[in-house]
């Protein structure tokens, strides 16, 4: 496999993808290969386009030229993103990689706009296309090369979890589709007299615009703070629960400051009557080990849970049954009873999905309805409920 051969040949210690230097080398390799391949394809397609007088082929050629600049920006993005943390950016400059991907996406859209105009002009002012076999074969070869480039970028992007390189893979795949459409129009021009390449040029341009839009969404989401990978969230919870005396996990929040620069915080439920020194030692060890295993910065907050009190245990089960009647609620935690005699407060948090349509007014109604149901069982209990959103 050529992709693997290039990686092993040009990336030192290529298996150690957690190393920032290795990751940077992967990014440089992806960018350099993109520059070389796309520039060669630009020269081939431009020559073919001028030779056969096809606006669709010429549009495809300049799309490849924009890909050259995209690869340059990708390299620059990796270089800037690898800068060490400083006082103004304590978590480093990793998000620059996302910004470089966003610039590439806008460049793709700009090319699409320009060639939509050119294609309209060709429809209004048509000129004959001269089909020639050798240029047609060169375009087919360029399609094969782009298929490989897409797979190469995807391979490298997956290796280092790079949205910029995975976006480049998607961009190359869109080029495969656009070039295939161009080749088809060139082939059909032997029998069709109307300006088919103008119409195909519009189709190619619209596809380029759509690809650019998709890339913008792909690269802007991490900058805006997208939800973390659900698989990673579950793995993190399971690892925390493997440690002695930790019985539950909640309030997990993950912040992404760029690839390899992730900060996570969570609350871990521990026995209330355990030595603080001992449980602190366990929590401290969990933070260090999990942070190292996943290359993240993990902070764990301890939540003491009383599991010995009969009243608390019995009431917790009753409340759990009550909450099953509310479909919005995923789970509840931090359950405790405060007070004495006939005047007691039940304190707990309920977790709901992050739904933008669920307003503060809706939260108030939910809390009121839960309190009413609990009072049917225990009129002397006053429920103090906090609504948490599921940020993962």
From TrEMBL:
Keyword field: Membrane, Transmembrane, Transmembrane helix, Transport
Keyword Transmembrane helix carried by entry: yes
Topology of the protein relative to the lipid bilayer: Multi-pass membrane protein
Domain Cation efflux protein cytoplasmic: 229-304
Main subcellular localisation: membrane
Signal sequence, start to end: none
One Pfam match: Cation_efflux
Transmembrane segments: 26-44, 96-113, 133-149, 198-216
Cellular compartments annotated: Membrane
Domain Cation efflux protein transmembrane: 32-224
Gene3D superfamilies named in the record: Cation efflux protein transmembrane domain (1.20.1510.10), Cation efflux protein, cytoplasmic domain (3.30.70.1350)
PANTHER family assigned to the protein according to its UniProt record, in alphabetical order: MITOCHONDRIAL METAL TRANSPORTER 1-RELATED
Family stated for the protein in its record: Belongs to the cation diffusion facilitator (CDF) transporter (TC 2.A.4) family.
Designated name of the protein: Cation diffusion facilitator family transporter
Species in which this protein is naturally found: Clostridium ganghwense
């Amino acid at each position: 496999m050529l992709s693997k051969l290039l990686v092993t040949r040009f990336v030192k210690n290529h298996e150690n993808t957690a190393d920032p230097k290795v990751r940077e080398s992967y990014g440089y390799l992806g960018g350099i290969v993109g520059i070389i391949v796309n520039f060669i394809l630009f020269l081939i397609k431009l020559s073919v386009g001028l030779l056969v007088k096809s606006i669709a082929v010429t549009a495809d050629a300049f799309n490849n030229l924009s890909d050259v600049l995209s690869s340059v920006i990708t390299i620059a993005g990796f270089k800037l993103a690898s800068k060490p943390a400083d006082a103004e950016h304590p978590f480093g400059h990793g998000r620059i990689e996302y910004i470089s991907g966003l610039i590439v996406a806008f460049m793709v859209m700009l090319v699409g706009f320009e060639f939509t105009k050119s294609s309209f002009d060709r429809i209004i002012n048509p000129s004959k296309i001269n089909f020639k076999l050798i240029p047609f074969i060169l375009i087919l070869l360029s399609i094969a090369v782009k298929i490989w480039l897409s797979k190469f970028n995807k391979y490298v992007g997956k290796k280092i979890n790079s949205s910029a390189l995975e976006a480049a893979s998607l961009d190359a795949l869109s080029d495969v589709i656009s070039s295939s459409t161009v080749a088809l129009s060139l082939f059909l021009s032997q029998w069709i007299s109307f300006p088919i390449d103008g119409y195909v040029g519009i189709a190619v341009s619209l596809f380029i615009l759509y690809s650019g839009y998709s890339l913008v969404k792909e690269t802007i989401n991490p900058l805006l703070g997208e939800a973390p990978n659900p698989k990673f969230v579950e793995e993190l919870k399971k690892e925390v629960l493997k440690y002695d005396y930790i019985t539950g996990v909640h309030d997990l929040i993950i912040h992404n400051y760029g690839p390899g620069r992730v900060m996570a915080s969570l609350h871990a439920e521990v026995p209330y009557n355990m030595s603080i020194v001992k449980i602190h030692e366990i929590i401290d060890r969990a933070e260090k080990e999990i942070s190292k295993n996943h290359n993240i910065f993990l902070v764990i907050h301890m939540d003491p849970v009383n599991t010995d009190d009969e009243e608390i245990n019995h009431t917790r089960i009753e409340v759990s049954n009550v909450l099953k009647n509310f479909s919005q609620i995923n789970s509840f935690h931090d359950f405790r009873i405060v007070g004495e005699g006939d005047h007691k407060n039940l304190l707990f948090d309920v977790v709901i999905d992050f739904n933008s349509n669920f307003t503060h007014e809706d939260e108030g109604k939910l809390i009121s309805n839960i309190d009413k149901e609990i009072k049917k069982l225990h009129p002397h209990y006053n429920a103090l409920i906090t609504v948490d959103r599921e940020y993962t």
